[in-house]
Amino acid sequence: MSGEEMNLRGTTGISEVFVSEKRWFFSFGSSTGTRCVCLLLELTFITAAMVQKYQSPIRVYKHPFELIMAAYERRFPTCPLIPMFVASDTVSEYKSEDEAIHVIERRCKLDIDAPRLLKKIAGVDYVYFVQKNSLNRRERTLHIEAYNETFSNRVIINEHCSYTVHPDNEDWTCFEQSASLDIKSFFGFESTVEKIAMKQYTSNIKKGKEIIEYYLKQLEEEGITFVPRWTPPVACKLESSTSHTRRPVSPAVNVPDSATKEGLNNKEILNISSSPSELTAGTPDDKLDADYIKRYLGDLTPMQESCLIRLRQWLQETHKGKIPKDEHILRFLRARDFNIDKAREILCQSLTWRKQHQVDYILDTWNPPQVLQDYYAGGWHHHDKDGRPLYVLRLGQMDTKGLVRALGEEALLRYVLSINEEGLRRCEENTKVFGRPISSWTCLVDLEGLNMRHLWRPGVKALLRIIEVVEANYPETLGRLLILRAPRVFPVLWTLVSPFIDDNTRKKFLIYAGNDYQGPGGLLDYIDKEIIPDFLGGECMCEVPEGGLVPKSLYRTAEELENEDIKLWTETIYQSASVFKGAPHEVLIQIVDASSVITWDFDVCKGDIVFNIFHSKRAPQPPKKDSLGAHSITSPGGNNVQLIDKVWQLGCDYSMVESPLICKEGESVQGSHVTRWPGFYILQWKFHSMPACAATNLPRVDDVLASLQVSSHKCKVMYYTEVIGSEDFRGSMTSLESSHSGFSQLSAATTSSSQSHSSSMISR
């Protein structure tokens, strides 16, 4: 560290003073037991904006609520475990007559362990924050609010905590915590400040549980192992037995800042505390607890836990399809270094991809061709020393050219996807078997026999595409890759393949030439001797196919392979359609019985579209397929059908039964329409053009960006429609019940207001 930059830490390890060039700022906080407040103070003069949020998992104390409260109260007015926590003064206090409700506000003083000169520059000797506790003994809840008072015009810190009874065990107590940090100004060094502040906050979060456990042990040493629950006084019991109209006291909530600042009286405070609480105890179904995370997901830092919880919650609120498992969400977070925005973007893209290609059902619905079963030299083989599933691939013995000529790229890709899906399933099984989180597998690749035949260009092209798909949709699933017996031609293959492999993944590669894998640091360091395959000199019989040359009699013609690829690509209940500017895609649905229900489910894969529903008493002319060649588009499985004749007039030949629905790229839309008349209904997906700015002829920035994203004026949708009798329909019977779920960073900016003039409902 240079002379202009230094770190000055106190002996407690709690406070930190960071001096860099001509900037001074402090980071200091108390633990969860004292209500974690990571207070960041700065002396700068340029405004900026940055907000960081934290959400904890549910932490469980296996002690009754009343005993936890007795331990919690012992850390006031000061706590010896936190030397910087000098004192706390009671600002206001309220107790109900029956002592069930106790609301107390404290002003807490912190003594920063920093040089006197630095304190003088900051202009403060102590730093203050305000903490409000709302205890409801009847409901057995404690809700806490804390916010900084010092330098509140520059840094805004808010924290909310709650102690509640465990939903499944009334003798256990749950703790949950959330916080936000808003840095108003920092000379443009917001990123640096953010890292320092969040690091400091993270280091203090875990200390809260230690403090509670410290005071629990202290109580036990004093012979206090049980605290009786609150019971109503005798007078209250008599009163409640004679009065049948008296309302019970509801759980207490945190008293708003304005309540204490404006000086509310006891009666007003009681009215506030009697309102329903906004903070409720979570259940195992909708929230994660710390023990579950440690058992099934591994040791995560508090901020990593927070990222997982927040991304999971976002999916529950916005995603209408199947929610991925926690370990899968965690993989995408790890792939983007726990950057929520980046992880959310690639995860949503992957969810859309899985839905389009029905990947969730691939193990149950797809049987590999016999050629793959006979000549694909790969298979699962026990596990490595860390408990990871072990996949063995004898690439050198595999005829990649023959497999591509016999099956095509799509069949090979689908087979690799099934292998990855099986790997996810085996990771779950091994997590249960070994009693620790296992989220990735080990791959052993034997290159014995690799030669120039394997560098056949179409084969390499297929390999690169497979790598691209796997990297995008199965991140952080490869724990280790052992490449054995690499021949001289391997560097050529590696040069072609390595640019398509993520940097984090490449770090997991271990490459051995010749018989080097048999020496120190070789295979025995990662795989038990008992399960080393026989073809590598081990004693374990490996059931992986030996591969070999695919007979040329099994080769397919280029036309057959192209048709087979299209069949596989569209082998789903969804259909693919291309939408062009001036050439919408339309689907005809004939309704015989009124009150039938037309349902739809579609994904906007590319571009923005407008979704319409029309009705006509007469059938349109036979559909006209738009020539893809006219648009210079070659899209497997894509089509464009136009039904509405150009001479038809809206309101005369056909009518619009719903208001148009604008759908953004990356969105998934589900909905239904209850038909009022028999006849012909037309579902239309039309290219959406951005409206021109009315105030000026110059294009807006949004218009330019949109035009760049929708290249060649082409959109693409994957859709599925079905007609159901009204008596069999279980959804909403309102007209056009459409709901959106966003699958891209772009769509996240769309509003949650109603976009249809009828009853179109859009939920984010």
Automatic annotation (TrEMBL):
GO cellular component, one term: nucleoplasm
SUPFAM superfamilies in the cross-refs: CRAL/TRIO domain (SSF52087), CRAL/TRIO N-terminal domain (SSF46938), Supernatant protein factor (SPF), C-terminal domain (SSF101576)
Pfam families: CRAL_TRIO, CRAL_TRIO_N, PRELI
Signal peptide: none
Subcellular location(s) per record: Cytoplasm; Golgi apparatus
GO terms of biological process kind: choline transport; cytoplasmic pattern recognition receptor signaling pathway; innate immune response; negative regulation of RIG-I signaling pathway
Gene Ontology MF terms in the entry: protein sequestering activity; RIG-I binding
Domain PRELI/MSF1: 52-224
Keywords: Cytoplasm, Golgi apparatus, Immunity, Innate immunity, Phosphoprotein, Signal transduction inhibitor
Location (main, coarse): cytoplasm
Region of interest: Disordered: 241-260
Ranges for domain GOLD: 570-723
InterPro entries per UniProt: CRAL-TRIO_dom, CRAL-TRIO_dom_sf, CRAL/TRIO_N_dom, CRAL/TRIO_N_dom_sf, GOLD_dom, GOLD_dom_sf, PRELI/MSF1_dom, SEC14/CRAL-TRIO_domain
Domain (CRAL-TRIO) ranges: 368-544
PANTHER family in UniProt: SEC14 RELATED PROTEIN (PTHR23324), SEC14-LIKE PROTEIN 1 (PTHR23324:SF51)
Subunit structure: Interacts with RIGI (via tandem CARD domain); the interaction is direct. Interacts (via GOLD domain) with SLC18A3; the interaction is direct. Interacts with SLC5A7 (via GOLD domain); the interaction is direct.
Function: May play a role in innate immunity by inhibiting the antiviral RIG-I signaling pathway. In this pathway, functions as a negative regulator of RIGI, the cytoplasmic sensor of viral nucleic acids. Prevents the interaction of RIGI with MAVS/IPS1, an important step in signal propagation. May also regulate the SLC18A3 and SLC5A7 cholinergic transporters.
Protein name per UniProt: SEC14-like protein 1
